[in-house]
Amino acid sequence: LIRKEKVDLLFLDIQMPQITGIEFLKSLSNPPMVIFTTAYSNYALEGFELNALDYLLKPISLDRFMKAVNKALEQYDLINQESGSSSAGADEDFFFVKADKKLVKVRYKEILYIEGLKDYVIIRLEEGRVITLQTMKSLEDKLPSQLFKRVHRSYIVALDKINALVGNMIELTEKGQAKHIPVGKNYRDELLALVNDKRL
Hints:
Blueprint: E1 9-13, H1 21-26, E2 33-38, H2 44-49, E3 54-57, H3 62-82, E4 94-99, E5 102-107, E6 111-117, E7 120-125, E8 129-133, H4 136-142, E9 148-152, E10 155-158, E11 164-166, E12 169-174, E13 177-182, H5 185-198
Parallel strand pairs: 1-2, 2-3
Antiparallel strand pairs: 4-5, 6-7, 6-10, 7-8, 9-10, 11-12, 12-13
């Protein structure tokens, strides 16, 4: 079926009769996106080395399953966007936020990072800043996940503005100076997985 049809996403167990999921994936010349499902955590590294999208450890909770599926959907949309077949609106490069009693246009490419401060959010730009009354979660949900990443309870960073990872800190440039942003322990693994995808 995989050889004959276009398959978008494959959920692949590792321990199977006659052949393992890892052996099966290695046998495919043009594999689809793969999410491994297994009861054995010791296969995780090998799975990621084969560019598996995610690794679900049994028993799989609905929340964890949905997180993996949404990750696959984002990857699917990104692939389609890069091939020029993105859905309507995917090429928009800005959004509006309410600030200073008006709606202010913010361009994605101008954002360095976003800082949460109680009920306010500070959008730090290459030139200046925008302060808006909303939560980090509400803003995070509106931002394209392929461009921005939540790295801390109080910070979202623009991925293309990251210069380096130094321990548990992200280094970027703000007003010509090095700026360091902490990486929360709950966000570190996802950030490292993202960085490893880009590493040569």
